[in-house]
Amino acid sequence: MSGFWDQAFDLNGRCAVITGGAAGIGLACANLLVERGAKVALLDRDPAVADIAASLGDGHLGLAIDLRQLDQVRDAVDLMAAHYGRLDFLVNSAGVALLDKAMEVSESAWDTTLDINLKASFFVAQACARHMIEQGHGRIVNLASQAAVIGLDRHVAYCASKAAVVGMTKVLAMEWAPHGINVNAISPTIVETALGKKAWAGELGERAKLQIPVGRFAQPEEIAGLVLYLLSDAAKMITGENVVIDGGYSIQ
Q1: Kind and range of the H or E element at 187?
Q2: Domains parsed from the chain with CATH numbers
Q3: DSSP label at residue 251
Q4: What confidence category does residue 172 fall into, taking pLDDT thresholds of 50, 70 and 90?
Q5: What are the CA-CA distances from residue 31 to residues 8, 25, 78 (Å)?
Q6: What is the set of active-site residues?
């Protein structure tokens, strides 16, 4: 049995595209996939993304692009697929949260949230799937949020975008399964990334933790572990799912 697990989680010779890969959950995923033998290609708006990719070791790529610009997305994905000669995995981790009461949300904030969280996720997936379909296999994980399944104060645009990501995931899974492509979503609670720690510091964070049955926030490495499982051969029969990882928040 141990041979099965060793093989299932051996990613040597595989290539992963990770959006938002320069920090937070995206970078945690990159570190874990590299540890398991994969080559990673990071897409991020941070100009330092190339240096961050280089810090992971030899053979990893980092491209600074605006995910809202579809020509940049398609060119970057094609470049990465050509460089590695394959494209096995996509982790759609890039996202933004612009929070305000529903009566105060601006058109700009709404459009930015939907453009990055939903539109970019779809078109990166579409660009990657073109290569995966040619190969006859692939795995895609979209980062949604517990906000996809519950309502949160001041999160109307964010909740709408993440609920849409889950709906999108189901359709992509259905359409692309005949091509050997699995598509799943993950919906975390608050994650203690650098930005998460800053946004949820002090009394605000302590009150939020009281609403989570396990009494704490998630760690980036815990989200990365679930991503690894869904990308691995151990999860071949899982597709179209939204896996909630929120310490029991949404079961209440």
Answers
A1: strand 181-188
A2: 2-191+220-244 (3.40.50.720)
A3: G
A4: very high
A5: 18, 10, 23
A6: 158
